[in-house]
């Protein structure tokens, strides 16, 4: 509350003295320059992440019928709810209302303080989880490159181990440097590079899948996925089915940064119209790649599809192509990490500066080349990156971790709050047809999230038993 009052007061001063200047927007902040292209790039960067790597495994659990159907259903729900959320950037009017700079502020403006607190808790838990998940994924891909080159040099029978711990330390060091960029407005170029990388490694995975299929791989596939009594037990089939729902949900996770992305857009044309187009472009693009990666990955590997389908092609030949694919994953997730951690950085720094407005440590900025270095930013952001790296080192379970993040965040952030805010803003009458079907949608997604969470927790418990942290693999 203290932070928000101070922020509102500072915004009021800014508006009184700066509105009307060519270099500032209607709220007194630096003029936003984002476009449909940059917003689409941010979305693609946020969506096509490590989630695409687990889709072949997810389709293998669900089969040819349910797998693609579930993937398509998640994409439609994500796009629909994102469109609702885009109208909540300004309130009470979606075009001329007051700006909401974060997802939490949008919830507060439309639903009140109580739900704002719940939303903030869900959002920041998800953002922290995603950054941990991206640290795990990057380390795995870095290790895959090292193992591939080792096998190529020393033969296929060589003992080629890779240390995820070392790779995570390297990744964390890179993130410490990039985290000194102050906000989203300074990383638009990073998102574009990362979006290109995501399309590149997805395409490589598709190409390797097609080559494997054309080369005569006779993978076992079925209409219903892995077979009970042959591939898995009946209980494993159920748990894996639930976990696959979480993996697919995670693959579409970006609603938690949508408002922050929308806050980078210029105000003409209206931000909500541009954001809806960007969401359609982003979700359509990613769904096309997801469907191809999931379906062709399942066709290539069958019931034995690996959790990370790009590492399932072996580390042998063409080793250089597998190396390029994994290198693209690394570059992409370097950028995606920043997209998801920037809202955390902004929240903590705004709160701290409002709480201690006279602190020289919190407010100091020193020029260093093209950027300004803040002692507070350097200290706290370095600590955050180090913490996420340590957690990733302790629990490097790719599939289960992604499934749990997706399960926990999908219903509240992608469905519930956008639906509730839309109905509050549009003043939808209780028990009207619109009110009824939107609540049915929300309830159905809640059930799916609970089942997915149960499956992922069971998978984590199974993976943790007997695991030794900091061990090379």
TrEMBL record:
<feature type="transmembrane region" description="Helical">
    <location>
        <begin position="440"/>
        <end position="461"/>
    </location>
</feature>
<feature type="transmembrane region" description="Helical">
    <location>
        <begin position="278"/>
        <end position="299"/>
    </location>
</feature>
<dbReference type="GO" id="GO:0016020">
    <property type="term" value="C:membrane"/>
</dbReference>
<dbReference type="InterPro" id="IPR013057">
    <property type="entry name" value="AA_transpt_TM"/>
</dbReference>
<feature type="transmembrane region" description="Helical">
    <location>
        <begin position="401"/>
        <end position="419"/>
    </location>
</feature>
<feature type="transmembrane region" description="Helical">
    <location>
        <begin position="65"/>
        <end position="89"/>
    </location>
</feature>
<feature type="domain" description="Amino acid transporter transmembrane">
    <location>
        <begin position="33"/>
        <end position="461"/>
    </location>
</feature>
<dbReference type="GO" id="GO:0015293">
    <property type="term" value="F:symporter activity"/>
</dbReference>
<feature type="transmembrane region" description="Helical">
    <location>
        <begin position="124"/>
        <end position="145"/>
    </location>
</feature>
<keyword id="KW-0472">Membrane</keyword>
<feature type="transmembrane region" description="Helical">
    <location>
        <begin position="187"/>
        <end position="211"/>
    </location>
</feature>
<dbReference type="Pfam" id="PF01490">
    <property type="entry name" value="Aa_trans"/>
</dbReference>
<keyword id="KW-0029">Amino-acid transport</keyword>
<keyword id="KW-1003">Cell membrane</keyword>
<keyword id="KW-0813">Transport</keyword>
<keyword id="KW-1133">Transmembrane helix</keyword>
<comment type="similarity">
    <text>Belongs to the amino acid/polyamine transporter 2 family. Amino acid/auxin permease (AAAP) (TC 2.A.18.2) subfamily.</text>
</comment>
<protein>
    <recommendedName>
        <fullName>Amino acid transporter transmembrane domain-containing protein</fullName>
    </recommendedName>
</protein>
<dbReference type="GO" id="GO:0003333">
    <property type="term" value="P:amino acid transmembrane transport"/>
</dbReference>
<feature type="transmembrane region" description="Helical">
    <location>
        <begin position="36"/>
        <end position="59"/>
    </location>
</feature>
<keyword id="KW-0769">Symport</keyword>
<dbReference type="GO" id="GO:0005886">
    <property type="term" value="C:plasma membrane"/>
</dbReference>
<keyword id="KW-0812">Transmembrane</keyword>
<dbReference type="GO" id="GO:0015171">
    <property type="term" value="F:amino acid transmembrane transporter activity"/>
</dbReference>
């Amino acid at each position: 509350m203290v932070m928000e009052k101070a922020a509102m007061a500072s915004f009021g001063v800014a508006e009184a003295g700066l509105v009307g200047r060519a270099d500032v927007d209607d709220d007194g902040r630096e003029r936003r320059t984002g476009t449909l292209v940059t917003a689409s790039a941010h979305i693609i960067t946020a969506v096509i992440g490590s989630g695409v790597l687990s889709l072949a495994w997810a389709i293998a659990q669900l089969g040819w019928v349910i797998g693609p159907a579930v993937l398509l259903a998640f994409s439609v729900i994500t796009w629909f709810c994102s469109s609702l959320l885009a109208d909540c950037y300004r309130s009470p009017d979606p075009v001329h209302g007051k700006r909401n700079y974060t997802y939490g502020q949008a919830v507060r403006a439309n639903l009140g303080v109580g739900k704002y607190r719940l939303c903030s808790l869900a959002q920041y838990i998800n953002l922290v989880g995603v950054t941990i998940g991206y640290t795990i994924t990057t380390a795995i891909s870095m290790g895959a490159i090292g193992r591939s080159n080792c096998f190529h040099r020393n033969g296929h029978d060589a003992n080629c181990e890779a240390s995820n711990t070392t790779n995570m330390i390297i990744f964390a060091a890179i993130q410490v440097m990039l985290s000194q960029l102050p906000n989203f407005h300074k990383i638009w170029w990073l998102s574009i590079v990362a979006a290109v990388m995501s399309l590149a490694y997805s395409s490589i995975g598709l190409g390797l899948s097609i080559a494997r299929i054309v080369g005569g791989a006779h993978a076992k596939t079925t209409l219903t996925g892995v077979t009970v009594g042959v591939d898995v037990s009946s209980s494993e089939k159920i748990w894996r089915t639930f976990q696959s729902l979480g993996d697919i949900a995670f693959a579409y996770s970006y609603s938690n940064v949508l408002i922050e992305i929308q806050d980078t857009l210029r105000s003409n044309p209206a931000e909500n119209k541009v954001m809806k187009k960007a969401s359609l472009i982003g979700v359509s693009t990613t769904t096309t790649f997801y469907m191809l990666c999931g379906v062709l990955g399942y066709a290539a590997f069958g019931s034995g599809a690996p959790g990370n389908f790009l590492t399932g092609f072996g580390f042998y030949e063409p080793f250089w192509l597998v190396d390029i694919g994994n290198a693209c994953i690394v570059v992409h997730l370097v950028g995606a990490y920043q997209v998801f951690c920037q809202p955390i950085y902004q929240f903590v720094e705004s709160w701290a500066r409002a709480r201690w407005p006279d602190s020289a440590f919190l407010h100091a900025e020193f020029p260093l080349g093209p950027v300004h270095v803040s002692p507070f930013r350097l200290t706290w952001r370095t600590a955050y990156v180090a913490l996420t790296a340590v957690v990733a080192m302790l629990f490097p379970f790719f599939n289960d971790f992604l499934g749990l993040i997706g399960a926990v965040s999908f219903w509240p952030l992608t469905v519930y709050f956008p639906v509730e805010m839309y109905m509050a803003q549009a003043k939808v009458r209780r028990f009207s047809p619109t009110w009824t079907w939107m609540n049915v949608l929300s309830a159905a997604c809640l059930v799916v999230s609970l089942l997915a969470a149960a499956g992922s927790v069971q998978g984590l418990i199974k993976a943790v038993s007997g695991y030794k942290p900091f061990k090379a693999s």
